[in-house]
Amino acid sequence: MMSRGIIIALLLAFAANGYGQDEVHFETDVRGIFKKHCFHCHGEEETVEGGLDLRLVRWMIEGGDSGPAIVAGRSETSLIYQRLESHEMPPDASKQLSTEELAKVKRWIDGGANTARPEPETLGDEYLITDEERAHWAYQPINRPEVPRVKNTAAVANPIDAFLLVKLEKHGYQFNEPATPDQLVRRLSLDLLGLPPESQWSSELQASEDPEGWNKLVDKLLASPHYGERWGRHWLDVAGYADSEGYSDVDAERPHAWRYRDYVIRALNDGMPFDQFIREQLAGDELVSSPMNDLSPEDVKLLAATGFLRMAPDGTGGAVDDAQQARNDTIADTIHIVSSSLMSITLSCAQCHDHRYDPISQADYYRFRAVFDPAFDWQKWKNPKQRLISLYTDADRQAAAEIEKEAKVIDAAVIKKRNEFIQATFEEQLAKLPAEIHEVARTGFAIDAKKRTPEQKEIFRKHPNLNVSAGSLYLYNRKADDELKKMQKKATDVRAKKPKQQYVRALIETSEQIPTTRLFYRGDYAQPKQELTPAGLTIVRQVSGLPEIPVTSENLPTSGRRLALANYLTDPKHPLTARAIINRVWMHHFGVGLVTTPTDFGVLGERPTHPELLDWLAAEFIESGWDLKHMHRLILTSNAWRQAVRDDAELQIDDPDNRWYGGARLRRLDAETIRDSLLTISGELNTKQFGPPVPVMPDVVGRIVVGEENTNAGRPGAVVDMKGEDLRRSVFIQVRRSRPLSMMETFDQPAMSPNCDQRRPSTSATQSLMMLNSVELIDRSRKVASNLTREFPDDSTKRIESTWQTIYCRAIEKQELVDAQAFIQSVTEDLEKQAAYQAKGKKQPVRSADEEALAVLCQVLLSSNEFLYVQ
């Protein structure tokens, strides 16, 4: 009998030689490695390096210039393995195979260099996509799966719960208990509105006996105008919204980009079907029916929607080192924004070569680019100023003409009156001179100075007081000049009534000749290759059977390519779009998507934790008419969403990342919500919507703050009175790529380069320091304290209780009240010893010691985790 040690040694030897393991195939195990490291030189190009093409096993066996590349069953004598093991190939040291990849290649060769199926006789020019690549989950048709049966049916409020609970039950768990009403109402308000709840919502919900009370509260918040502001911000992230061009240090402003921001907010508030939302952003200009010089309000909205395609960083409005490269960079960034936001794929990886991991060829990339080339013709480029479309209508022009006619009557009267004053003043001055020169002077005054005779010129040179003109009249007759100014102001006031010239920054396609799209060799625009026509992804066409995008449309004055793309992406057969959008919706509600890589559904991305739920939601989304608010209702009325924060220690061990949804995820407020909540709590929030952005500027110490520098003040730090505009919601604050607001940057406001796939909240010491020292936070805290002191002038206990309700949205606990009272008393006693909080004669301090102590308490609460995190 063999000893235990010998048995273990034999098992290890068997394992080292691959015995007892699954058979390795080229298509499933090795092709991806070669595609990543080798295909660029040995398969993609027209001429393969060394005559060796690694895309088919039989070609490796046949070999190239150096002979057979592999010997089946013998890795040690296989040339390709020798080169890989010695790191001779790939030649780029940064692209060497990992130890695990090299071991897999060795195991494959030693196992007989097997293929999963017979290989094709030839590949031709068509990009090869394997059965394994076609089988990837993200490319499968969206089919509504059956709702699973669960044991605990009482825990199921809607199908979402069933899909999540079935996995929990499989592992022996259930949903966590529901969160408290206070927690749920705060969570709901911050989720849908990005603002703290109104104080009565929670008490009304708890007092109501209506079983539909929660559903009605959800509907109430979905109908709020603040909903579009909150969820519009989410979409503006993936669209890369910015009020500046970026690209270079100049970072020029985009004065009209805000119309796109307003379009997004209005569309979401109005409940626009999401397929229409996509269609208008991709091809709003192709849907316009009124003339470009007399746009209807509806068509203005459609043009504003195309701002989606004008959000990429763009340096072509100024001096750049390579103007052609800058143009192509802008197009590439636009394609990245479109593909990452609407399809959740890393299409940009195929700009210079075939995608190293996903079945996307370089030709696919440029076929997709061909959809946009008629509007983004890089050889007939429109700089930023040329993209502005005037919003003047025929009615505006007619009104302006009538007003101008009225103003010109006043102009004529001004001219007549001015001439009378000038002539009278001239005569007054002439009367002071000898009579013998009067006639000659009058004649000379009546004509152009250049046409005067030498005698006349000599008189005016010798007597400069005769040079009375419109510019010098005030020197002689101040009263006359003032009268003329009043008349001129009247003309100016009349002209001010003209309809203002406004613009929209849009993408439009002219009816000129459609440019040719060519594949750029290794992404270099200076090396164009074959001509390509517009198309979606080959893999999508093969799996879904969707028709290709036509080169031109017979029914439109434009090529119609972008409209065709929009219809293609929103076709129920398209496997990516609905999944991509609904995964983002889920991510914003739960803190993480069912696919945790929202812009990468490919091989390198994570697989969905609940694929059946993702497909059920995507199918529901499509069948609901792409109704986003319907999907919100489903999620927010599920028991899964209403769970308390996970607190099961055993579940945390089994599922450390909470992928089974056995409780809510503790989430920190994002940057905009922190600022907007502070303004709401202090009672200062200006709820004005829409319009040009509120400007930002550096303060005296270089921090970027909301405000406008007064350049006429003559002293540093002087600012223009914003008249409450600085207190508007963060979504209406200017987004300068080079000037992120210091407060919001600290809390991870994303940089748009070119867009933001998902927020990545951090925890850092700088956040605590900012909350400790922020002038804005101190001001907000003092404002809260001032409001509460005014509301409860004689009841310190009520002030403290209301502080908790205002900031934490819950009632204070007994021990918290005792501790807070002790804190207030201690701080008050310390402050009363300071001169700033003592009366000087009859002059009272700006703030009393007890009010300032309450402000300090408010700052403590506003800096705490309970305020900064959502339970």
From TrEMBL:
<dbReference type="GO" id="GO:0020037">
    <property type="term" value="F:heme binding"/>
</dbReference>
<dbReference type="GO" id="GO:0009055">
    <property type="term" value="F:electron transfer activity"/>
</dbReference>
<protein>
    <recommendedName>
        <fullName>Cytochrome c domain-containing protein</fullName>
    </recommendedName>
</protein>
<dbReference type="Pfam" id="PF07583">
    <property type="entry name" value="PSCyt2"/>
</dbReference>
<dbReference type="InterPro" id="IPR036909">
    <property type="entry name" value="Cyt_c-like_dom_sf"/>
</dbReference>
<feature type="domain" description="DUF1553">
    <location>
        <begin position="561"/>
        <end position="823"/>
    </location>
</feature>
<dbReference type="InterPro" id="IPR022655">
    <property type="entry name" value="DUF1553"/>
</dbReference>
<feature type="domain" description="Cytochrome C Planctomycete-type">
    <location>
        <begin position="38"/>
        <end position="92"/>
    </location>
</feature>
<dbReference type="InterPro" id="IPR011429">
    <property type="entry name" value="Cyt_c_Planctomycete-type"/>
</dbReference>
<dbReference type="Pfam" id="PF07587">
    <property type="entry name" value="PSD1"/>
</dbReference>
<dbReference type="InterPro" id="IPR011444">
    <property type="entry name" value="DUF1549"/>
</dbReference>
<feature type="domain" description="DUF1549">
    <location>
        <begin position="159"/>
        <end position="373"/>
    </location>
</feature>
<dbReference type="Pfam" id="PF07635">
    <property type="entry name" value="PSCyt1"/>
</dbReference>
